[in-house]
Amino acid sequence: MICWFDIIMFHLTLFRSKPLSNWMFVHLYLVLLSALMPGIEAITNARGKSGLATAHSYNRGFCPDGVTSFEKIQGAILQSANLVPVYSNNGKPVTAECNNRCRLSEDCLGFVVNYDLGACFRLEQNSDGRRQDLVLTGDRSTYFEKVCLHAPGCDRAWMFERVLGFFLDGFDDMVINEVISRQQCMELCLRERGIECRSAEFYYDRQQCRLSKEDRRTQPTAFRPSSDNVDYIENQCTSYPVSIRCEFEEYVGQDLGTADLQVASPTLEDCESICDQSPGFNCRSFTFFPEQSLCRLSGDDTYSAGVNLLQISPHGSYYQRTSCLDLSLRCTVDTMRITLRTNRPFTGRVFSQSNPNTCEVLGGGRRDTEISFSLRNSKCGVTQDAEGVYSNIVVVQHHPLIQRKGDKAVKMVCLFETTNITVTSGLNFMIERVNGGLGGGVTSIVNATAPSPRIQLKIVDENEVDVNGARLGQLLYLRLEMEDSSIYGIFAKNLIAKSGNSIESIPLLDDHGCPNDPAIFPHMEKVPGSKSLQSKFEAFKFTDNPVVRFQVTVQFCLEECHPVKCGHQYSNGRKKRDLSEGRPQPYPYSESDRAPWSDEIQDKIIYDETPLQRDLIIDIQSYVPTALSRTPDNDLSHLVCTTRTAAVFIVFSFVVLIVCVTVVAILYVKFQKRKISENGFTGPQNTPSQFAEMKTVESLRVCPTSQVPSTRESKQI
């Protein structure tokens, strides 16, 4: 039996970060926990400085002879389970407290954290036998499921992260058959000593476990959805790769909103250091609030949670890890030789910023990538800054085709003095905003018996402003806008991004509407309250061309197009939680075996397909704001902005006015001639006959048809 002193000390640790107003609750809670199982001492000893109970914390009732931990499923809930409120903290991070409470409770088989509410809810059942009830919500919420593992663990609050319906294509180092459960696959990964198991995949139908020394961050292009019943599981007990250039990129005035822990931090550097040394979980991002000296740590980043979760944060800025670079420079009497060393195979490019096409080298899956520049030849960008000082700017691009935020431009400098000295200095990638591009969205009209829907392909920023130029890494929306009054629904597929010269291209959505690489371009969703579609992405560019040309095919359906299942995510419409209230679910998605359209979806498709195109220009040489701005040399007071409809109306009105003035002028001239004639004016000899002709015409207009005289008789009157 644990003494009261030990219980009080444990709970002082548990609630040490809570305000005094919670102390009454703590004392009441002690009474209920006084009869807990003897494993409480082990939890107290295993608790780290992060405030989270770790994987070596034991729950004797749930896991009597193993290690109790959790697996994390970002953005998911278990539909069939009842949510019982456990803890809330007025919008502050609650993951640590919820983790601790659920770990100690035999009835808690998992918990859901709602980051927007700052609250968590426990579940009394898990996903075993009901995997189909796990639903991705797209909200700021995370499901933690309790697991019992019979393998050596680590000091992590959750030992695995799980992604439904995804796999790492082509990087299976070990394949193990006759594995009966996902938990057994996790144990095999933890026990493996032949390789450093960073991730695993469990195939439920095949009862197969595949281990890999790579993960979704070391091989992002290989991480993709599958139609098989497979889950990707990532080992959190492996260390984060550390090298000499592991940095955090800044998102000014934004926040991901998925903080797991909050600590006091007087400076940004302290906050970054706390994230680097976090013992309770792999800290991948943080948000720093300088006015309040607060640091919020998160185990997520935009890669795992998606850029859609980024929100405006006027008092803080968000930071997440970028790729770690290990660059070395060797200077000889005539050569600058640069070597990039990576812990994992490098498939991107290293090139000179001034001449990317000629002066480049492809990674090719090697861990050591080397490029050399001649100091005597300036075609590759080597410049002599001063006597004995030569420099060049080298770009490390992680994707073989496109540049994204996180790619680095590094200035390399060789100093030739009494001895050779090499210096490297880091630069943030140049991300200035630019001007230019094609004006307006491309509009296409599809004719049908019903009112023709008008489709517009737009690229807008977070302020709903249509843009033609953007800075690298800027958050944008690619939007397909359609009239809400139309009886049609729309479906997007075959979205391709091309360079301005059409030499390079990268597919973003396949022929089923599923994203090829969600990290570059995620699935499309409905704009709330409309029939339009949009997807939030970070601006990227091709290496040697500032123009990114988006081409997409839009297909029309009667009433509504069904969303497409891409792994465990849905594209082009309602989320899975909405499907239970409507029509049957659509066909599955597969990389290797394309599934056909279901009969129901086939009947609803109109086979008119509309291609749309839009250009976006990204230029890293100059900064010109996309929005109009007033400057001393740019006075816009004389400009009048109007809509296309108003402009057409103004032109039409002007034409009608001109016609009316002309008619009035003619009538006025005729009236004056008649008046002069009646007053006895004698002009040229032909004037009376002409005037008589006009009178004759007038008489013809008023005579009945039967009494109309002939032309000859009229002239004699």
TrEMBL record:
Transmembrane annotation, as ranges: 646-669
Residues of the ZP domain: 330-573
Keywords: Membrane, Signal, Transmembrane, Transmembrane helix
Domain of life: Eukaryota
Listed PROSITE patterns: PAN (PS50948), ZP_2 (PS51034)
Organism encoding this protein: Argulus foliaceus
SMART domains the UniProt entry points to: PAN_AP, ZP
UniProt xrefs under PANTHER family: FI18240P1-RELATED, RE15579P
Signal peptide boundaries: 1-42
Keyword Transit peptide annotated: no
Keyword Ribosomal protein set for record: no
Gene3D superfamilies attached to this UniProt entry: Hepatocyte Growth Factor
Taxonomic placement: Eukaryota, Metazoa, Ecdysozoa, Arthropoda, Crustacea
Protein name according to UniProt: Uncharacterized protein
GO biological process terms on file: anatomical structure morphogenesis
Disordered: region residues: 570-595
Domain Apple: 63-148, 154-237, 246-324
